Amino acid sequence: MATIKIQKEEIPIIKSGLAIEENLLKISLYEYKKDLETFEKKYKMSREEFIQKFDSGDLGDDAEWFDFLFAYRAYEHVRKKLKLLEGILI
User: Fold this and answer.
1) CA-CA to 74 of 20 to 30 Å: which in 2, 27, 39, 51?
2) What is residue 66's three-state secondary structure?
3) How far is CA 66 from CA 30, 55, 61, 89, in A?
4) Angle between helix 63-86 and helix 11-43 axes, rounded to 10 deg
5) 3-state secondary structure of 58
6) 1 pLDDT more than 70
7) How far apart are CA 47 and CA 70, in angstroms?
8) In angstroms, rounded to a whole number, what is the distance separating the alpha carbons of residues 13 and 66?
9) Residue 4 phi/psi, 5° resolution?
10) Structure confidence by residue, pLDDT tens digits, 31-68
């Protein structure tokens, strides 16, 4: 585990910055989740089914699938960043 040294008066600035980042990530997560739900309804398959079919090559390489893939990967990326951020203790 890494240790960061900060001055006492710097703590509010760091907490504020982390709170802003957390809020931005939550907004992004919500938006990507809505996108995924739209794709799931449109194509009548869950995101898990989609990834399995996409990765196996069953869906082809139409541009619409890459939009679904982007939404999935962006959602997962933001979700992981948010989990990391929530683990920061100050």
Assistant:
1) 2
2) helix
3) 20, 11, 8, 37
4) 150
5) coil
6) no
7) 11
8) 39
9) -120, 130
10) 999 999 999 999 999 999 999 999 999 998 899 899 99
| Contacts of 81 by beta carbon, 8 Å cutoff, 6+ apart | 25
C-alpha torsion sign, points 78, 83, 84, 88:
positive
Reported pTM:
0.85
What pLDDT does 78 receive? 98
Question: Residue 24: is its pLDDT beyond 80?
Answer: yes
Using CA atoms, how far residue 88 sits from 7, 21, 35, 41, 84, in Å, is 17, 12, 28, 36, 7
Q: 34-38: long-range contacts at Cβ-Cβ below 8 A with a sequence spacing of 24 or more?
A: 35/71, 35/75, 36/68, 36/71, 36/72, 36/75
Handedness of CA 21, 40, 66, 53 (dihedral sign): positive
Residue 18 has pLDDT above 80, yes or no: yes
